[in-house]
Amino acid sequence: MRLQLVTPDRQVLDTDIEEVYAPGIQGQFGVLPEHVNFLTALDTGELRYRTDGKDHWAAVSGGVAEVLADGVTILADNAALADEVDVEAAKAAAASAEAGLKDAEPGTPEAIDLAAELAWAEARQAVAAH
């Protein structure tokens, strides 16, 4: 089965895989070959895919996943493969977002944006740790 991971800026990944697990808005989902077709919105988190019996990770944020019998296409707002992550930059982004959240009024657009930035920074750190 084929996995394509695309952002507005670039094609991050286009490879044959054995299985993939992604963060959907209603929880993580897994896909094996010949899976039933579906379309779902994505949450921020870890994307894990297996090629040649080995697991690989990427961080994704937002977007949609289209699952067809022969492949998965992920159109993400942001994506980074584990080996592309600048861990120090992700840690700094998380610290900045956490500091901003302490002063932000809950439920405001500013707080929502800061929470999204924090989740994206944490996802990048998590995949880099694998």
Concise account of the structure shown:
28% of the residues lie in helices and 42% in strands. The protein has helices spanning 87-103, 109-128, and strands at residues 2-6, 11-16, 19-24, 27-31, 38-41, 45-51, 54-61, 64-68, 71-75, 78-81. A hairpin with a 2-residue loop joins β3 (19-24) and β4.
From the structure above, extract its key features.
single chain, 130 residues, alpha+beta, ATP Synthase, domain 1, 2 domains, five-stranded mixed beta sheet, five-stranded antiparallel beta sheet, 2 helices, globular
Largest sheet: 5 strands, mixed
Number of strands: 10
Order of helices and strands: EEEEEEEEEEHH
Tell me the strand percentage band: 35-45%
Helix content: 25-40%
Compute the CA-based radius of gyration: 15 Å
Explain what the structure shows.
Helix 1 runs antiparallel to helix 2 (109-128). The chain starts with a strand and ends with a helix. A hairpin with a 2-residue loop joins strand 3 and strand 4 (27-31). The strands form two sheets. A five-stranded mixed β-sheet has the order 2-1-9-8-5, with no helix packed on it. It has two domains: 2-83, ATP Synthase, domain 1; 85-128. With 130 residues, the protein is α+β, with helices and mostly antiparallel strands. It has two helices and ten strands; from the N terminus they run E-E-E-E-E-E-E-E-E-E-H-H. The radius of gyration is 15 Å and the shape is globular. The chain has helices at 87-103, 109-128, and strands at residues 2-6, 11-16, 19-24, 27-31, 38-41, 45-51, 54-61, 64-68, 71-75, 78-81. 28% of the residues lie in helices and 42% in strands. The longest helix has 20 residues, at 109-128.
